[in-house]
Amino acid sequence: MLGVVASGAGGVEGLFDGLVRPALDAGWRVGVTLTPTAGRWFRDKGLVAEIEEATGLPLRVDSRLPGEPKPHPPVDTYVVAPATANTVAKLALGFGDNQALTQVSEAIGTDGVEVVVFPCVNAAHVRHPAWPGHIANLRSAGVHLVDGEDVWPLTEPRSGEWHPIPWRAVLDAVDGTRP
C-alpha cells in the first residue's frame, strides 16, 4: 500500500496524472491524504472525485473521529510529493499538526515502513540556516529524499522561473522501496 501525501505547492494539481495513476498502473494500491491547503485546492478545482474513483479510497484531509473506521489500509511506503519547506521542516522536527503530517511523522523511523520525500523548495529555503539540519534529520531517520540539481534545479523566489514537478523521479524512488 502506497500512502501519497501532498502539500500545497505549485504543481500539486498534477498529482493524479503524475503520481497516482502511474503508481496504480505499476501495481500499487494507493491512498491519498492532503494537507489542509492542498485539500482546499483540490476541492476548489474539482479534483477529489477523480482520485477517489481511481483509488477506491476516500481522499483524506481531516482526521477521523474516535470510533470511526480507518479509511485507508496500513501503508508500506509513504511518498510526500510535493513537500513544501514548511512540510519538510515539520517532518524533520516530528510535528504532526494535520492528518497528512501526523501519519508520515508516525511512519518515520518505523521498521518496515519506507518514506520518500520530494522537497519542492526554492533557493531561499535551502539557504536558511535550519535547512541543512532538517535534511540531515530526515536522512538519519532513513527517509529517501528526491532532491539535487539534476532533479529539481533551485530558483530564486518570485523569479518567474518554474520547473514541472519531477513525478518520474519521485515514482522511481517509490519503486526503489519495494522489497
Automatic annotation (TrEMBL):
Instruction: Name the InterPro entries for this protein.
Output: Flavin_trans-like (IPR036551), Flavoprotein (IPR003382)
Q: Where is the Flavoprotein domain?
A: 3-135
Gene Ontology terms, MF aspect: catalytic activity
What superkingdom does the record give? Bacteria
Can you say what this protein is called? Flavoprotein
